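Incident log, structure service

09:12 report received: a user says their structure output differs between two submissions of the same chain.
09:20 pulled the input from the user's history:
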Amino acid sequence: MPENKIRNELDGLVETTIKMNAETAHVISSGYKQHPEVTTVTSVYNGVKPSHVVLEELYEWAKEFNPIVVKKIDELTAAT
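09:34 re-ran on a clean worker, output below:
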């Protein structure tokens, strides 16, 4: 996909997110070409911290204070 087409689609997603006053918007595609195990995600975060950053911070906290949370995060993030 040409870079300008990707940029236009991203611009549209950002504009829609702002117009709707939404905190987040995502475009998710399961499987990519001949790789069914690959998932692509394009995300917009409007005034909030990205979820992967929050998860990383939670994981680091949990390693010290709550190993049960670490185990659950590991289970949830494992490929299915």
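09:41 both user submissions now match this output. Likely a transient worker issue. Closing.
09:42 reviewer note: The mean pLDDT is 92. The two ends are 28 Å apart (CA to CA).
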